[in-house]
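Please check both lines for our workbook:

___
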Amino acid sequence: MIEARMTDLNYNEILIYLGHRGQEITPEIETQIQRCIAEIRRHAAPRLVYRFLPVDKGSITGFPLEGNDIRQLLQDCDEAVLFAVTLGSDIEQALMRHEVTDMADALILDACASVAVENVCDCFEEDVRVQLSRENRYLTSRFSPGYGDLPLETQTGMCGILNTHRRIGLTVTENYILVPRKSVTTVMGISDKPQKLRKRGCEDCNMFLNCLYRKKGIVCHE
Protein backbone atom coordinates (compact mmCIF):
# COMPACT_ATOMS: atom_id res chain seq x y z
CA MET A 1 0.00 0.00 0.00
CA ILE A 2 1.49 3.31 -1.09
CA GLU A 3 0.72 6.26 1.19
CA ALA A 4 0.42 9.92 0.21
CA ARG A 5 3.53 11.93 1.03
CA MET A 6 4.88 15.40 0.30
CA THR A 7 8.50 16.52 0.21
CA ASP A 8 10.01 20.03 0.17
CA LEU A 9 8.25 22.31 -2.32
CA ASN A 10 10.21 23.35 -5.40
CA TYR A 11 10.76 27.10 -5.06
CA ASN A 12 11.38 27.56 -8.78
CA GLU A 13 8.08 25.90 -9.62
CA ILE A 14 6.31 28.34 -7.30
CA LEU A 15 7.92 31.24 -9.17
CA ILE A 16 6.68 29.78 -12.46
CA TYR A 17 3.12 29.68 -11.16
CA LEU A 18 3.55 33.30 -10.08
CA GLY A 19 4.59 34.30 -13.60
CA HIS A 20 8.18 35.15 -12.67
CA ARG A 21 10.21 36.28 -15.68
CA GLY A 22 13.60 37.05 -14.21
CA GLN A 23 12.64 40.24 -12.38
CA GLU A 24 14.22 40.99 -9.01
CA ILE A 25 12.71 39.26 -6.01
CA THR A 26 12.85 41.68 -3.11
CA PRO A 27 13.55 40.49 0.44
CA GLU A 28 9.94 41.40 1.31
CA ILE A 29 8.52 39.18 -1.45
CA GLU A 30 10.93 36.39 -0.54
CA THR A 31 9.72 36.56 3.06
CA GLN A 32 6.10 36.53 1.89
CA ILE A 33 6.68 33.48 -0.30
CA GLN A 34 8.43 31.60 2.51
CA ARG A 35 5.59 32.47 4.88
CA CYS A 36 3.05 31.12 2.39
CA ILE A 37 5.06 27.93 1.88
CA ALA A 38 5.04 27.39 5.65
CA GLU A 39 1.28 27.96 5.78
CA ILE A 40 0.64 25.46 3.00
CA ARG A 41 2.77 22.86 4.76
CA ARG A 42 0.91 23.54 8.01
CA HIS A 43 -2.56 23.09 6.49
CA ALA A 44 -1.89 20.40 3.87
CA ALA A 45 -3.28 16.96 4.64
CA PRO A 46 -2.42 14.97 1.49
CA ARG A 47 -4.69 12.04 0.70
CA LEU A 48 -4.41 9.53 -2.10
CA VAL A 49 -6.46 6.77 -3.70
CA TYR A 50 -5.39 4.61 -6.63
CA ARG A 51 -6.40 1.56 -8.61
CA PHE A 52 -4.61 -0.71 -11.10
CA LEU A 53 -6.67 -1.78 -14.12
CA PRO A 54 -5.88 -3.92 -17.18
CA VAL A 55 -5.35 -2.33 -20.59
CA ASP A 56 -6.26 -3.93 -23.91
CA LYS A 57 -5.35 -2.32 -27.27
CA GLY A 58 -4.86 1.12 -25.75
CA SER A 59 -8.11 1.09 -23.76
CA ILE A 60 -8.55 0.61 -20.02
CA THR A 61 -10.78 -2.40 -19.41
CA GLY A 62 -14.02 -1.35 -17.74
CA PHE A 63 -13.20 2.34 -18.02
CA PRO A 64 -12.99 3.49 -21.65
CA LEU A 65 -11.31 6.87 -22.16
CA GLU A 66 -12.08 9.15 -25.08
CA GLY A 67 -9.43 10.69 -27.33
CA ASN A 68 -6.49 9.63 -29.44
CA ASP A 69 -3.85 11.02 -27.05
CA ILE A 70 -4.66 8.64 -24.21
CA ARG A 71 -4.79 5.67 -26.58
CA GLN A 72 -1.37 6.63 -27.90
CA LEU A 73 -0.05 6.91 -24.33
CA LEU A 74 -1.32 3.41 -23.51
CA GLN A 75 -0.53 1.72 -26.83
CA ASP A 76 2.38 -0.33 -25.43
CA CYS A 77 0.76 -0.92 -22.05
CA ASP A 78 -1.07 -3.91 -20.59
CA GLU A 79 -2.01 -2.18 -17.35
CA ALA A 80 -2.71 1.32 -16.04
CA VAL A 81 -2.89 3.01 -12.68
CA LEU A 82 -5.61 5.57 -12.06
CA PHE A 83 -5.13 7.81 -9.06
CA ALA A 84 -6.47 10.89 -7.36
CA VAL A 85 -4.74 13.22 -4.92
CA THR A 86 -6.07 16.04 -2.75
CA LEU A 87 -4.48 18.40 -0.23
CA GLY A 88 -7.71 18.44 1.79
CA SER A 89 -10.34 20.94 2.88
CA ASP A 90 -8.11 22.94 5.26
CA ILE A 91 -6.14 24.23 2.25
CA GLU A 92 -9.39 25.22 0.55
CA GLN A 93 -10.49 27.19 3.62
CA ALA A 94 -7.09 28.90 3.94
CA LEU A 95 -7.26 30.01 0.29
CA MET A 96 -10.78 31.34 0.72
CA ARG A 97 -9.82 33.30 3.85
CA HIS A 98 -6.92 35.01 2.12
CA GLU A 99 -9.01 35.75 -0.99
CA VAL A 100 -11.15 37.92 1.28
CA THR A 101 -8.43 39.47 3.44
CA ASP A 102 -5.24 39.67 1.33
CA MET A 103 -5.23 38.93 -2.40
CA ALA A 104 -1.43 39.11 -2.65
CA ASP A 105 -1.08 36.34 -0.10
CA ALA A 106 -3.95 34.47 -1.76
CA LEU A 107 -2.12 34.42 -5.11
CA ILE A 108 1.10 33.17 -3.57
CA LEU A 109 -0.73 30.58 -1.46
CA ASP A 110 -2.51 29.36 -4.58
CA ALA A 111 0.81 28.93 -6.38
CA CYS A 112 2.32 27.12 -3.39
CA ALA A 113 -0.70 24.82 -3.14
CA SER A 114 -0.54 24.02 -6.87
CA VAL A 115 3.11 23.03 -6.47
CA ALA A 116 2.25 21.03 -3.35
CA VAL A 117 -0.42 18.89 -5.02
CA GLU A 118 1.94 18.21 -7.94
CA ASN A 119 4.60 17.29 -5.40
CA VAL A 120 2.31 14.63 -3.91
CA CYS A 121 1.65 13.30 -7.42
CA ASP A 122 5.40 13.23 -8.10
CA CYS A 123 6.03 11.30 -4.89
CA PHE A 124 3.37 8.72 -5.73
CA GLU A 125 4.74 8.35 -9.26
CA GLU A 126 8.24 7.86 -7.85
CA ASP A 127 7.02 5.20 -5.42
CA VAL A 128 5.17 3.32 -8.17
CA ARG A 129 8.22 3.47 -10.45
CA VAL A 130 10.42 2.00 -7.71
CA GLN A 131 7.87 -0.75 -7.08
CA LEU A 132 7.57 -1.60 -10.78
CA SER A 133 11.32 -1.49 -11.39
CA ARG A 134 11.68 -4.61 -9.26
CA GLU A 135 9.51 -6.39 -11.85
CA ASN A 136 11.27 -4.80 -14.86
CA ARG A 137 8.12 -2.82 -15.62
CA TYR A 138 7.88 0.81 -16.70
CA LEU A 139 5.52 3.77 -16.30
CA THR A 140 4.42 6.30 -18.87
CA SER A 141 4.15 9.98 -18.00
CA ARG A 142 1.04 11.16 -16.15
CA PHE A 143 -1.99 12.16 -18.20
CA SER A 144 -4.94 14.02 -16.67
CA PRO A 145 -8.43 14.94 -17.90
CA GLY A 146 -8.18 18.19 -19.85
CA TYR A 147 -4.78 17.29 -21.35
CA GLY A 148 -4.76 16.97 -25.14
CA ASP A 149 -8.05 15.56 -26.34
CA LEU A 150 -8.92 13.72 -23.11
CA PRO A 151 -12.17 15.48 -22.07
CA LEU A 152 -12.30 17.29 -18.74
CA GLU A 153 -15.57 15.51 -17.95
CA THR A 154 -13.51 12.31 -17.55
CA GLN A 155 -12.91 13.59 -14.01
CA THR A 156 -16.43 12.47 -13.06
CA GLY A 157 -15.83 8.90 -14.16
CA MET A 158 -12.40 8.72 -12.59
CA CYS A 159 -13.69 9.93 -9.26
CA GLY A 160 -16.52 7.43 -9.49
CA ILE A 161 -14.35 4.41 -10.23
CA LEU A 162 -11.92 5.45 -7.47
CA ASN A 163 -14.76 6.23 -5.04
CA THR A 164 -12.98 9.46 -4.12
CA HIS A 165 -15.92 11.02 -2.27
CA ARG A 166 -15.96 8.31 0.37
CA ARG A 167 -12.25 7.52 0.46
CA ILE A 168 -10.55 10.94 0.34
CA GLY A 169 -13.40 13.49 0.42
CA LEU A 170 -12.94 14.54 -3.23
CA THR A 171 -15.97 15.41 -5.38
CA VAL A 172 -16.64 16.84 -8.86
CA THR A 173 -19.00 19.72 -9.66
CA GLU A 174 -21.44 19.71 -12.57
CA ASN A 175 -18.83 21.79 -14.44
CA TYR A 176 -16.21 19.06 -13.83
CA ILE A 177 -14.23 21.07 -11.28
CA LEU A 178 -12.60 19.12 -8.45
CA VAL A 179 -13.50 20.05 -4.86
CA PRO A 180 -11.33 20.71 -2.91
CA ARG A 181 -9.68 22.72 -5.68
CA LYS A 182 -6.13 21.61 -4.97
CA SER A 183 -6.71 18.08 -6.19
CA VAL A 184 -5.68 16.03 -9.22
CA THR A 185 -6.99 13.01 -11.09
CA THR A 186 -4.66 11.29 -13.52
CA VAL A 187 -3.64 8.05 -15.21
CA MET A 188 -0.31 6.39 -15.99
CA GLY A 189 0.25 3.40 -18.25
CA ILE A 190 2.38 0.39 -17.28
CA SER A 191 4.45 -1.51 -19.84
CA ASP A 192 7.12 -4.19 -20.15
CA LYS A 193 9.04 -1.77 -22.40
CA PRO A 194 10.73 1.51 -21.37
CA GLN A 195 8.49 4.48 -22.15
CA LYS A 196 9.47 7.88 -23.55
CA LEU A 197 8.67 10.45 -20.86
CA ARG A 198 7.83 14.12 -21.27
CA LYS A 199 10.69 16.49 -20.44
CA ARG A 200 10.50 18.47 -17.25
CA GLY A 201 10.43 22.24 -17.51
CA CYS A 202 12.64 25.16 -16.55
CA GLU A 203 12.02 24.68 -12.84
CA ASP A 204 14.64 21.93 -12.66
CA CYS A 205 17.41 24.09 -14.15
CA ASN A 206 19.96 25.61 -11.76
CA MET A 207 20.12 28.71 -14.01
CA PHE A 208 16.41 29.39 -13.44
CA LEU A 209 16.67 32.71 -11.58
CA ASN A 210 19.31 34.24 -13.88
CA CYS A 211 18.37 32.66 -17.22
CA LEU A 212 18.67 35.09 -20.16
CA TYR A 213 16.29 32.98 -22.25
CA ARG A 214 13.51 33.22 -19.68
CA LYS A 215 13.98 36.99 -19.40
CA LYS A 216 13.24 37.15 -23.14
CA GLY A 217 10.18 34.95 -22.75
CA ILE A 218 11.70 31.94 -24.57
CA VAL A 219 13.22 28.61 -23.55
CA CYS A 220 16.44 26.79 -24.41
CA HIS A 221 14.78 23.38 -24.74
CA GLU A 222 12.14 21.87 -27.01
The two ends are 37 Å apart (CA to CA). Strands lie at 47-56, 59-60, 79-86, 138-139, 171-172, 178-179, 183-191. The mean pLDDT is 90. The helical segments are 11-17, 27-43, 68-73, 89-101, 103-133, 154-162, 164-168, 212-215.
